[in-house]
Design goal:
Elements (H helix, E strand, L loop, with lengths): L1 H8 L8 E5 L4 H13 L5 E6 L2 H10 L7 E6 L5 H11 L18 E4 L18 H26 L5 E5 L21 H22 L4 E5 L13 H13 L3 H13 L6 E5 L15 H11 L1
Helix pairs in contact: 1-8, 2-8, 4-5, 5-6, 6-9
């Protein structure tokens, strides 16, 4: 942890970074937004995408600020791909909205994604027919990365960082079922978790080949104490114990930024554990054939 903090504190930018956080209103996402603003000393353009405007306003108002800070919130129910497309388009359009910040964006340096829900329900389709958990854990992330790739490419062409991070669970899934990629025939919670993990592993590999100037990382956050489950009386009772056993969002954020800022990860595909250490991709349940299957399924 101390090494990660030292590395993050040493980062200097020759440009004003633009960073987009999908799911940055609580937990790991929020802690990473806060740390990013602190390490850049507020000299950054930060955009949070999420559903909870009140929470986003609270986060943005708490960030380290400087005269050059631009902080904004873009509301989006990211379970729907149509909403993701609309959000991406609004980032590159000449919006007259009072919340439009300094849009249209001409570049994007960092895309950091942590959207998700905690649910024990079975297959729960959105109006687009995608399971809600799979939607947030994978489909949404793929859609944001694909649609924002031109902005990331623009940053890379300018000689700046152009990096994507998806926070989930690299290496914990099994080989995908090519006949049931959406799990509409064989859904279980375990299969959903496995599919999302492997699909993210496949995503970073495939995107890194299609966009060789960009960096794509799938990273494990570890076991982190977040607000998930706070509505449960039982969870509130055992939270003091969990604080002793689990990583705080703030400590987790240091490892997330260590991966995001790593000078050795300027381009390519990377899979990392909860300490931002590299994992061996040859040991993951992925293949070029499965990469193409998943890509074609989602395009």
């Amino acid at each position: 942890l101390s090494a990660a903090k030292a590395a993050n504190a040493s980062v200097k930018f020759s440009y004003r970074p633009v960073a987009l956080f999908v799911g940055g209103t609580s937990g790991i996402g929020r802690a990473t937004v806060e740390a990013f603003a602190r390490y850049t000393k507020g000299d950054a353009h930060i955009i949070i995408i999420g559903q909870n405007e009140a929470a986003a306003t609270e986060v943005l108002s708490s960030l380290y600020k400087s005269p050059s800070s631009t902080y904004e919130f873009l509301p989006c129910n990211a379970t729907l791909m149509s909403n993701v497309s609309a959000a991406c388009k609004s980032l590159t359009s000449n919006s007259t909205s009072s919340s439009a910040g300094s849009r249209p964006l001409t570049k994007l340096n960092f895309l950091f994604m942590t959207p998700g829900i905690l649910s024990t329900r079975g297959f729960t389709p959105t109006s687009e027919g995608i399971d809600r958990k799979l939607s947030l854990n994978f489909y949404t992330r793929f859609k944001f990365a694909m649609e924002l790739a031109p902005l990331l490419e623009a940053a890379a062409d300018a000689g700046e960082d152009a990096r994507v991070i998806s926070v989930l669970a690299p290496g914990t899934g099994r080989k995908i079922d090519a006949q049931d990629l959406g799990l509409k025939k064989s859904y279980t919670l375990i299969r959903a978790a496995s599919m999302a993990s492997t699909a993210n592993d496949l995503m970073v590999q495939e995107f890194s080949e299609r966009h060789p100037k960009l960096s794509f990382t799938h990273i494990h956050p570890g076991f982190v104490l977040t607000s998930f489950g706070d509505a449960s009386i039982f969870m509130r009772m055992i939270k003091p114990l969990l604080r002793l056993l689990l990583t705080s969002p703030q400590d987790c954020a240091e490892f997330m930024l260590r991966a995001l800022f790593d000078p050795a990860a300027a381009k390519g595909a990377f899979h990392r554990n909860n300490h931002a250490e590299l994992m061996d991709p040859s040991k993951l349940p992925i293949s070029p054939e499965d990469q193409k299957l998943v890509y074609d399924h989602l395009v």
